[in-house]
Amino acid sequence: MSAITLHNSDYDRFDAWLHKIYESTQTNNWFMPSEDVISTGVCLRAHDGFFRVFPYENTALVPFEAAVRGLNPVVAVKLRNSATVAALAKLEPRETSIYIDQATRIQILESIDYLPQAEKDQCGAFIASALVLWSYALEGMIPLCRDFDEKLIKHIWHFMTGGISVLLQEYALDGDPRRFALLAALPIIYCVSLFFCLQLVGNLSLIFGPVAQYHENSQYYSAVRPEPNPEIDNNLPHITIQLPVYKESLELTIGPSIFSIKKAMQTYARQGGTSAIFICDDGLQLISEEDRKERLAFYANHNIGWIARPGHSSKPDGFKRAGKFKKASNMNYGLALSLKLEKFLAQMIADGVEEDPHDCLEDKAMRMAQEEIFEETGRRWKPWCANGKSMRVGEIILIIDSDTIVPEDCFRDAAREMGESPDVAIIQHESDVMQVAHHYFENGITHFTRRINKCISLGCANGEVAPFVGHNAFLRWSAVQDAAFVDPADGVKKQWSEANVSEDFDLALRLLLKGYTLRWATYSEGGFKEGVSLTVVDELARWQKYAYGAFAASFKVRETNEGLGCNEIIFNPLIKWWKDGPISPQLRNFVWSKAPVHYKIGMMSYMFSYYGIAAATVGSVLNYLLLGLAPQLDRFYLHSFEILLACTVVFPGIGNLGYTLLEYRLGHRNFIGAMVENLRWVPFFLFFFGGLSIHLSTALLAHMFSYDMTWGSTVKEVERSTFWIEVPRIWQRFKLSFIICFACIAMMVIFTTDAVPFQYQIPGWNWALIIPLSLTVGCHVLLPVSPLPLTLTCMHPV
């Protein structure tokens, strides 16, 4: 039996060679496995019959060392990088060798045990998903590895040209090189099709993949609530519930959320913990005097700490609420005052200031912090605030929205999990939906939200990095402060990015790059509930915000050493292209960061999916005109109807089948019931996703041309309305899409008539051209109208 190499302090020339060869040959390892399962390394002959292996003390390399001993070279290296994996992926079953170029043939062995019988003069062999290279001279090992890597890259590119074989065949026939200009579209095709390909693989995994991991805990996923821990249970941390609100109804929205939180706080108090509610109220200075008094009395009666900043002013010297979506700056404003409160409180305690029974130290510190902020603004804007004790931020923060229901017993579970996993910065709980109106549109969005959440749960159980959606999540306050940055806009240290629309993703990425873990939890079993959009307008605004934010902010990677950051984006605005180029450095920083590779691929596919949806209208119009008017098109061109068929198969086809089987295999629903439920919403998704294109295009173009778009808070309560009230609103909000759609309809009608010359007519029987464009136009026209009657019947009557 082979012995593993033990690490000791006797560092000699053989160790130096091991380190040098390893560092020179293993830097491009693709999978980046953890130390306990790493299976690549270097084996070096110290003297006859004795070999040393690096990394040291790695039992996974014992078979490799034994095989190398039988082969008996001076040095051998086991590699597993992207080039190796890509080359092996092209193999047919039972192949015994690979020709990586005309002069290089490399053997393929069934397992590492066959290495001693390999053809020694080839100095290389493919084994499983790895490549073993060996040399009979130490100095020749590193050049040999580099030479093989270059040859493998060329070999891979040779096979990748299969996608352009049509162009090569056509060039062989007519010799016209101009058609190769079409290759410029390949990067765009790759980016847009990435989400489609991942969805295909994901849907197939729902059908054929394992699901046992859904019920087990892992690094990024918690399916089972933590066990009792006496050490933690006897020292439960203080938990702050941070709640940003705006102009929502106190009676219908804020009040029910507070009552739900109070039940959880009572349970936590009986378990031995303490908690407090901290409200960042952006609407308090804007609502009527009567509503303001009602809110303040409510806050006082429930011991709620709160802060309210001045309203946004359009005047040059007025108060500015930073950000396109004001939630981030609202929370930063509250946290800034809380941090100042802590500073003054610590100073008073150090000075020996005694507690006043009528005026606690926390309230004194709060007023001092309030005055400092007032001075910093030139004595122009003084924050409103009250209840200093509840404004102190605890070790754990629970972020919720104003329309949220939380489980009665969830605080102690979070405390236990945070205590047992000090690297976890965020525990994001899977949320169910708190329905308000129960009308057709809300029911459709409810089904979509539950479906997305369940798929996220399975993805995290499979090892995907957990997302942070910005609410119903427990945050470690020390980690949030560790990932804070200095905003270059004003030089102030902040926790939430105000330049981002997707401030939650920005924080998650900063935490991830700091080495923290994000975790998705499902053991609350739907106890956390959130509201969804009640109208088409609100849901479209949400998607526009995501589209704008996905590219205007999502990859805002900061220089962590200096704490400085920039507000540039994946694609720079057009006006900056001449100086900075189209691609931002932040995207490059993200791609080359230490974030897991699968996380990068998944996030990139998600981001580029917005471009795929946005391009539907333009692509359908171009497809109609090109195929209808051009005398001929290169076969490299992919028709819209072919894309439509592929999307139909993958999304409503395999997607619904996969999700139905997932619910059945998890034991959540019976097969027939799940299938009926999923098929029931196919028309809804058809109209909704088919009608998104123009609206996402406007958001993406707004960013590209530096047009400022802002979004307010989502409507949380059902509004009373009638058909005659809604029709003018629909026309005003969807005027642009209606004009574009009716213009497309007129174009299709005109091209079928004698109004255009015969050679330019596009007859109505040419359904392969008509269907994609008609479907896109029809969905845009029907999107705001189709759910309207069913929605109005469930609204309060006027």
What does this structure look like?
By secondary structure, the protein is α/β, with parallel strands linked by helices. Among the domains are: 13-163, L-fuculose-1-phosphate Aldolase, CATH 3.40.225.10; 213-224 and 236-534, Spore Coat Polysaccharide Biosynthesis Protein SpsA, Chain A. It is built from 28 helices and 21 strands. β4 (97-101) and β5 form a beta hairpin. The radius of gyration is 31 Å and the shape is globular. The termini are far apart. The model is unreliable at 30-38, 551-569 and 792-798 (pLDDT under 50).
Rg computed from alpha carbons, rounded to a whole number of angstroms: 31 Å
The CATH class assignment of one domain is Alpha Beta
The largest sheet is: 9 strands, mixed
What is the strand tally? 21
What structural class is derived from the secondary structure elements? alpha/beta
Helix % is 40-55%
Q: What is the quaternary state of this protein?
A: single chain
- Going by CATH, the architecture of one domain would be Alpha-Beta Complex
CATH topology of one domain: Spore Coat Polysaccharide Biosynthesis Protein SpsA, Chain A
